[in-house]
Amino acid sequence: MMLNRKSTGQTGRLAGMVAIAAAAALALTACNGGSGSDGGSSPAAEGDQKITFIPKQLNNPYTDVVLGGGKKGATEAGFASSQVVGPLEASASSQVSFINAETQAGTNVIVIAANDPDAVCTALGEARSAGAKIVAFDSDANPDCRDVFISQVVAKEVALIQTKLISEQIGGSGEIAILSATANATNQNEWIKFMEEELASNPDYKDIKLVAKVYGDDNDTKSFQEAQGLMQAHPNLKGIISPTTVGIAATARYLSTSEYKGKVALTGLGLPNEMRPFVKDGTVKEFALWDPAQLGYVAAFAGKALTDGTMTGAEGDTFTAGELGERKVEKGGLVIVGPPTVFNAENIDKYDF
Ligand code: RAM
Q: How far is residue 93's CA from residue 117's CA, in Å, rounded to a whole number?
């Protein structure tokens, strides 16, 4: 689905907001409603509900697509205003001040992609005590600190598809490495855990050896350097899995002008629009992702159902996510959005995100 990504305005509410990211946050802010805080625990009248998205970081093209879907969902679900705030880098505690500001402002729903499952917990607990509902998406917070987690795809499936792709691309044997995002990211670590289990237990992968795990912190320059470092440290490397859109794009850029182009395989999770040139020039054969916009879209509707009290986030609860239809809450407060897609030279031009 193609979702509108345009901001609809901005709010003065951010004026007093701390941190270096304030200017960037303002640019991304969309708010149709008033600016003041309603200051606390009383639930907002239905026409007055506010939702705020706090991604892992603002300067990430993946985040932009997710939040485009989030804004569309927030409007369709009936929130009076929606906005985006967040740090410029995805370090563990970088989101805490933003959560605190939302608590102060009396925001009804906070949607967060946690940079660290625990570092955000105390702040989220305070927001909840003040009446906010917490929707984790993309990267989960500790389940004790949120109401539901909107997961793009079943975590194990995300891992399995990437191990399968790398195995196919290196002919089932040889050294591989993982180039991840930040070392604390819940989503990355869960995927990596399942990849390691699969490599260790599936006889099809007995000749594949994971020799390194490195972290580019979802920073383009650091990811590029880590890719370069991997090749220097492991001259026999046959493939790299990068389960992060920032990491795979930076690694592809490095490989594409190096002697390893077409020789060292690269797969993982990428945005088709960023990866298209590297698929066309033969650096990358196949990689995977879901539709990121759907993740934000479903999260907004989950937040509305929670704040309206039409669900609590308990196992078996259901809610309607606009044009994506009914969703069910599974064990652990998990809501799954949709299956992954594999992109290659044949189909990549069909996608525009
Ligand atoms: C990066 C982030 C994000 C992840 C995607 C696939 O943009 O690490 O959390 O879900 O990649």
A: 10
Percent of the chain residues past pLDDT 70, beyond the cut: 87
Domain count, the chain: 2
Q: Give the number of other Cβ atoms within 10 Å of residue 43's Cβ.
A: 15
Q: Per the structure block, which two tokens stand in for 281?
A: 């020039």
The Cα-based distances of 302 to 154, 309, 324, 327 in angstroms read 18, 11, 12, 9
The two tokens of residue 188 are 């990355």
Q: Is residue 251 part of a domain?
A: yes
For residue 309, what is the DSSP state?
Answer: T
| Cα–Cα distances in angstroms (integers) from residue 203 to residues 197, 237, 239, in the given order | 12, 21, 19
Residue identifier of the C-alpha nearest atom 2 of ligand 1 = 244
The model's pTM is 0.88
Of 263, 299, 351, the closest CA to residue 114 belongs to: 299
Domain coverage including residue 173: 155-289
CATH number at residue 331: 3.40.50.2300
Tell me which of 66 and 39 has the higher pLDDT: 66
Q: What is the pLDDT of residues 147-178, one digit of tens each?
A: 999 999 999 999 999 999 999 999 999 999 99
For the cut 80, the answer to whether the pLDDT of residue 1 exceeds it is: no
Mean pLDDT (the chain, rounded) = 90
pLDDT in tens, 320-329: 999 999 999 9
- As given in the structure block, the two tokens for residue 277 are 């040139």
| 347: in domain | no
| Beta bridge partners of residue 81, listed in sequence order | 31, 50
The values of phi and psi at residue 72, to 5°, are -60, -45
Ligand 1 centre from 63 Cα, in Å?
8
Q: Which residues line ligand 1 (CB under 6 A)?
A: 56, 60, 62, 113, 138-139, 181, 187, 218, 244-246, 269
Residues 235 and 308 both lie in one domain: no
In this structure, the residue with its CA closest to atom 10 of ligand 1 is: 138
In a domain, 275, yes or no: yes
Three-state DSSP at 335 gives strand
Residue 88 sits in the same domain as residue 207 = no
Measuring from atom 5 of ligand 1, which residue has the nearest CA? Answer: 244
- Looking at residue 42, its pLDDT comes to 43
